[in-house]
């Protein structure tokens, strides 16, 4: 009925607003990514025409602590080392120690932290050209975070599994 449909839409809208609020709280430093993701949300008013085209791909699961590589040119490495004042010394050492022809290897947590440093530096940069270069590095890091996860995938169950085994004895 129309009333049930309205209730369902209100419920979905409320859930979408809650998810939007949570996403903003957990990724406040990464506003551009959150806004981009929400804009692709199938429940965003502008995107309700074709729900199938707006689904987020499932990130690849990796074990916690597994390192993921990111190739950075010498120029991008230099920018990240020289222009991020508050960069953690551990990240500086890892970037310096990685040969130029090899990708920098960090865990997802480390990429998340490093992305935060880079986003903060970009947001406080007076030089627009340098800000754009930092944004480019940040976008590469964000792509890693969007395409990988170290959180256990949720298990899905079929209704048949919950019902238990079928009995073939029908004499009762």
Quick overview:
This protein is mainly alpha-helical and 172 residues long. It has helices at 2-26, 31-40, 74-82, 89-97, 108-123, 128-147, 159-163; strands at 60-61, 67-70, 104-107, 148-149. 55% of the residues lie in helices and 7% in strands.
Describe the structure.
The strands form two sheets. Strands 1-4 form a two-stranded parallel ribbon. It has a two-stranded antiparallel ribbon with strand order 2-3. The two termini are 41 Å apart. By secondary structure, the chain is mainly α. The protein has helices spanning 2-26, 31-40, 74-82, 89-97, 108-123, 128-147, 159-163; strands at 60-61, 67-70, 104-107, 148-149. Helix 5 (108-123) packs antiparallel against helix 6 (128-147). Helices cover 55% and strands 7% of the residues.
Oligomer: single chain
- Which structural category do the helix and sheet elements fall into? mainly alpha
> What's the tally of helices?
7
The largest beta-sheet arranges its strands as 1-4
What are the main properties of this structure?
single chain; 172 residues; mainly alpha; two-stranded parallel ribbon; two-stranded antiparallel ribbon; 4 strands; 7% strand; elongated
Layout: helices, strands, pairs:
Layout: H1 2-26, H2 31-40, E1 60-61, E2 67-70, H3 74-82, H4 89-97, E3 104-107, H5 108-123, H6 128-147, E4 148-149, H7 159-163
Parallel strand pairs: 1-4
Antiparallel strand pairs: 2-3
Helix pairs in contact: 5-6
């Amino acid at each position: 009925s129309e009333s049930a449909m309205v209730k369902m839409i209100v419920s979905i809208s409320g859930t979408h607003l809650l998810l939007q609020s949570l996403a903003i709280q957990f990724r406040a430093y990464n506003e551009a990514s959150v806004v981009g993701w929400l804009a692709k949300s199938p429940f965003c008013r502008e995107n309700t025409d074709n729900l199938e085209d707006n689904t987020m791909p499932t990130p690849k699961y990796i074990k916690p602590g597994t390192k993921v590589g990111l190739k950075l040119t010498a120029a991008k490495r230099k920018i990240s080392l020289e222009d991020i004042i508050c960069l953690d010394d551990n990240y500086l050492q890892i970037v310096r120690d990685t040969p130029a022809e090899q990708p920098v290897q960090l865990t997802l947590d480390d990429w998340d932290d490093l992305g935060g440093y880079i986003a903060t530096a970009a947001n406080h940069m007076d030089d627009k050209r340098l800000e754009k270069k930092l944004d480019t590095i940040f976008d590469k890091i964000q792509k890693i975070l969007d395409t990988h996860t170290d959180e256990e995938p949720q298990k899905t169950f079929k209704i048949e599994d919950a019902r238990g085994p079928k009995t073939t004895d029908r004499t009762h």
